[in-house]
Write the structure tokens for this entry.
Amino acid sequence: MVGGAEKWVMMVTAQTPTNIAVIKYWGKRDESLILPVNDSISVTLDPDHLCTTTTVAVSPSFDRDRMWLNGKEISLSGGRYQNCLREIRSRASDVEDEENGIKIPKKDWEKLHLHIASYNNFPTAAGLASSAAGFACLVFSLAKLMNVKEDQSKLSAIARQGSGSACRSLYGGFVKWIKGRDEDGRDSLAVQLADEKHWDDLLIIIAVVSSRQKETSSTTGMCETVETSLLLKHRAKEIVPKRILQMEEAIKNRDFTSFAQLACADSNQFHAVCLDTSPPIFYMNDTSHRIISIAEKWNRSEGTPQVAYTFDAGPNAVLIARDRKAATLLLQRLLFYFPPSSATDLDSYVLGDKSILKDAGIEGIIDVEGLPPPPEIKDSIPTQKYKGDVSYFICTRPGRGPVLLSDKSQALLNPQDGLPK
Ligand code: DP6
């Protein structure tokens, strides 16, 4: 290793998006390699609103691997971190930083230690796939630091070993995780179906639903489902393979009607499989069910779907609107049924892309109580409202894949000592 007085710190910062599955991954055939029982398809979410930023640093002065998540040091001893670190180190190449006179030969990566700092631009506790963006960003940034020459798909197979859904965050747009056949998992990886520009009419509104309940983790939940649910076997063998082909076709043709029908049916079936688990797992709550009813009622009254809904392992709703007009009408409906609790103003209740608020003509209005009821409600039925049942909304859209951040000021670690800023 060459470099003055062994004091140098070399680092890389990257940003990686989260993703939402529209054909769900649920159930593993191999727990430690994280190999799924079926293919899945996701939409990558715009990193401007939901992403992880990670800085990885290497220095001969570091005495062990360390990681900080949202400013707090966390342990790297877990098998998932260890698997990702081992796999990525074994693929490292020679690295040369001519400007600073630093040379790291390939063989030195096994002995050099790393510092990793990661930050989510959304609350980790909100249950919005933070592990997917987190592991994808860890693997992507380390691959850049260590000059790993493998393509994005091969990197996705490493991120998969951190968290299954993470492999789909290595690409923007629409992504398929192919379950693969090999026992060692090398062919269980993500491929991009279409980039984010392919279908840029779509807009996404996430309802972060208030919940006091501690949910079963995806990892534990899917393990119990594999052990006890006969419905999962039927789903993985008979239903998903056909749905994957139909969903690929719907995405290719920008066929929103099919896209929405498939996404809603698959979300509902995933939750049915959870209910078919012993003991049953409940991820959706009354608010989630209400949001489904609102979407279904509206779609039916319009004759063609305006919105697709999908729910992961928690009560939050991810609503995908056909276009801007539909997103506007959707937001009006959501604010009608779920007004903010009185202490909150709209600006902190609707986050992300606020232009949808503007289009809906409700920007700056503090009191949304006066919104008229949507026309699909029959006049005779008194409408109930559910103030406070949604914590906040995030307006976003399909987005790009991982990027390197070259602006040094965005690094999360100090360039002098490699410790968090
Ligand atoms: C419901 O990827 O979080 O979000 O592989 O055990 O880390 P592990 O699970 P994880 O599971 C995600 C499940 C899901 C559906 C999906 O994203 O496809």
Notes: The mean pLDDT is 93. The radius of gyration is 22 Å. The chain has two domains: 4-199, 203-396.
